[in-house]
Amino acid sequence: xxxxxxxxxxxxLALMREQIALQRRDPxxxxxxxxxxSPFVYRRELETIMFRSWHYAGHVxxxxxxGDYFLFELADESVILARxxxxxxxxxxxxxxxxGSRVCEAQAGNRxxxxxxxxxxxxxxxxALRAARAMECLQGFEKEKLGLKKxxxxxxFGLIFINFxxxxxxxxxxxxxxxxxxxxxxxxxAKIAHRQTYPVDANWKIALGNYLxxxxxxxxxxxxxxxxxxKSLEHxxxxxxxxxxxxxxxSTGVPGLEQSLYRIFREAPAFGACVYTSRYALFPGFKTGSxxxxxxxxxMGDFRxxxxxxxxxxxxPLAYMLNYPDHCVLFRYVPRAIDKxxxxxxxxxxxxxxxxxxxxxxxxxxVWHQTTLEDKRIMDANARGVRSxxxxxxxxxxxxxxxxxxxxxxxxxxxxxxxxxxxxxxRAHRTSSVETAG
Length: 438
Prior knowledge:
Layout: H1 13-24, H2 34-37, H3 39-48, E1 55-59, E2 68-74, E3 77-83, E4 89-93, E5 108-110, E6 114-115, E7 122-123, E8 129-131, E9 150-156, E10 159-163, H4 171-175, H5 179-182, E11 191-200, H6 204-212, H7 217-220, H8 222-227, H9 238-252, E12 261-263, E13 275-281, E14 309-315, E15 319-324, E16 327-337, E17 340-349, H10 361-385, H11 402-415
Antiparallel strand pairs: 1-10, 2-3, 2-5, 3-4, 4-9, 6-7, 7-8, 9-10, 11-17, 12-13, 13-14, 14-15, 15-16, 16-17
């Protein structure tokens, strides 16, 4: 495969199409250097993928009262998520309809109105323009047409998602496919125990690709690998998984947790609306994702016990969850620039759990904080390595790296402007139990 940097030739549509064709000659190969470094490709990704997909923005507990708001930011875009006087959650583009200034600068808070700091235009909590100072002298001025622009908002399981595409399919309806496996955690009644952002000096696809495979887990994550069977080949832990699936309903009091659903990337219900779940076993002696295997917090929602398993979930292309019976961990990947991304992790516990009494925050976050610091190190090293002129993509593992391969196939179609979806595959998936449609 030829190894162009974008600066080697005119970086545009023709070069991108040529590189896609070269990549497809070996669909099992890792992504070429070009796709990490081309400014044209990065701009194209924003338009064809980021602004058409569903993104996790936050949790309903962050917008408990009318006027509560927080900002969601992706690349150069900023969205105000606000609870309106009507009780609804509104997603507002953070750009004044006058000269484009950011209307809101603080990351979170409570406002009666949003006032542009530049010329003082005033917007309601739902984005409607309330007042534009002295503009009554402009003949034909219609403030009703100059409210803040809006993005699509979907809420399910207490999780808030946004989409910049006004024509995007209803994501809340697609997430309903996961009701059986997600609803028992009662995340809408949960609380955020901790949030932390881990900046990465790497292209967003390096950060996401790392999450999508566990080929690196045994090498890079010793603590994680002592706990989670996902670090092993499927045949090595098949009996362990089958035993966990068999006891899951009886141990947790929640039927159907062991059923899986794979509707991701090109097989999603709609473009950028991935929904997925499977459940895999923890190793014997580990009830939950803790360093010693002992419970960390009160049981979530409807759970009545531990099955020594963990629920794996995906929502859209960039948000994932790993849910244990006593706490849930959400992972979000956000592009910031062509060579910078953020990993945000959110730890949830039951809504009435008391820090320092029912759970210890440091112990709660310990496993995934350590694992993420390890991930940050290898992502940064990966990013430096693929800058090499001599980097040549190698073959990907047929099991461990099956999901990254599916992601990149979807990604290449999207770059070409192909937003179609396909029927769910009949191919085997790792750690899949009985597959269900919800």
